[in-house]
């Protein structure tokens, strides 16, 4: 007797996927705006074909939050500015949150 296994594929739109990923990060304590930023970056990476930095990282990010390696509510701060240089303390916030803060400071 032969056994056949079928692997079904479900297609989810980017907007729906981003909402779902955002809700996961909110469930582990991240602010909605930060959760949306992180979810957006992961979905965009997948859309560009860079799956190593896409939604497959959701589980890893959640584990880092649960193990207190990432603070889901931390906000980066500017420690020092001098000319074209700035020193930012990310306070263990998500990388996307810290990089957005730093980029905004650079643009100022």
How would you describe this structure to a colleague?
The protein is mainly alpha-helical and 108 residues long. It contains four helices and two strands. Strands 1-2 form a two-stranded antiparallel sheet. The protein is elongated and about 75 Å long.
Q: Specify the structural class.
A: mainly alpha
User: How many strands appear in the DSSP assignment?
Assistant: 2
Low-confidence stretches: none
N-to-C series of helices and strands: HHHEEH
Which strand order do you get reading across the main beta sheet?
Answer: 1-2
Q: What gyration radius follows from the Cα positions, in whole Å?
A: 18 Å
What assembly state would you assign to the polypeptide chains in this entry?
A: single chain
Treating each run of at least 4 consecutive H or I residues as one helix, how many helices? 4
Distance between the termini: 69 Å
Roughly what percent helix? 40-55%
List keywords for this structure.
108 residues, mainly alpha, 2 strands, elongated
